Inverse folding.
């Protein structure tokens, strides 16, 4: 991926700005919806899973535990579901202006990342209200955020290049994400999963990222891949994300020269 010069940075800023304007055009609350949507989802799920099913019983600071999971998942979902069509949706602009194709992918992910940062403010506010205070371990949290950003970019690079040729990809990915939402420990703690199956859940990089974030910010009761599989398992999870990013970026670069034929 080449260095992003000032011209390309300016184009990317315009893409991000246009994305936000189109998304909230005609909305009375505008950008506030980026905060309200996860809060509404959190409120519904919290009532259902704690008051009806008692899922969060015994988990320290479960409201923060749940909200953090929802916010991280929403970022990954938004970045990838919208990012699938990043190249196709900006096809007209790409044909008119000579810019690196990856700029379209980066701008889409950046829009979702801005929403993530705004939502994390709400998470930390709730954590403070709940009595959670910063510790030295919080310094590791940006590394977790960096990992989920790299994972989102990896998936988006691969799917956006694939979608240029195969338009069914977006529907397949939406169905996959619906299934993955329940296969990832977002609504429930890992303690509800039988011990012999817990390690299998960490094949899913989002499970590893989510549990690491909860362990760092919320409670050490959050089971992590590092606890179950030791240093090798923890490092393997991170290596999988990094290698996936480079493989997806390479696939995107190879396919980019054929984009014009399909746009």
């Amino acid at each position: 991926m080449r260095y992003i010069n000032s011209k390309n940075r300016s184009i990317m800023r315009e893409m991000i700005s246009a994305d936000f304007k189109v998304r909230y055009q005609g909305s009375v609350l505008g950008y506030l919806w980026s905060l309200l949507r996860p809060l509404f989802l959190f409120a519904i799920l919290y009532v259902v899973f704690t008051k009806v099913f008692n899922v969060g019983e015994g988990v320290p600071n479960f409201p923060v535990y749940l909200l953090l999971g929802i916010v991280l998942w929403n970022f990954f979902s938004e970045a990838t579901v919208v990012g699938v069509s990043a190249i196709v949706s900006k096809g007209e602009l790409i044909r008119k202006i000579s810019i690196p194709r990856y700029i379209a992918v980066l701008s889409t992910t950046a829009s979702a990342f801005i929403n993530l940062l705004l939502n994390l403010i709400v998470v930390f506010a709730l954590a403070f209200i709940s009595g959670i205070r910063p510790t030295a371990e919080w310094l590791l949290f940006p590394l977790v955020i960096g990992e989920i950003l790299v994972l989102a970019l990896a998936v988006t690079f691969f799917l956006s290049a694939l979608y240029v040729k195969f338009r069914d990809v977006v529907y397949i990915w939406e169905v996959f994400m619906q299934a993955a939402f329940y296969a990832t420990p977002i609504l429930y703690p890992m303690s509800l999963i039988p011990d012999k199956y817990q390690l299998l859940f960490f094949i899913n990089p989002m499970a590893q990222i989510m549990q690491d974030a909860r362990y760092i910010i919320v409670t050490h009761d959050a089971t992590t891949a590092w606890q179950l599989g030791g240093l090798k398992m923890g490092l393997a999870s991170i290596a999988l994300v990094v290698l996936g990013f480079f493989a997806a970026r390479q696939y995107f670069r190879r396919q980019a020269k054929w984009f014009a034929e399909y746009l």
Q: What stands out?
A: The chain has one domain: 6-262. The chain has twelve helices and no strands. The radius of gyration is 19 Å.
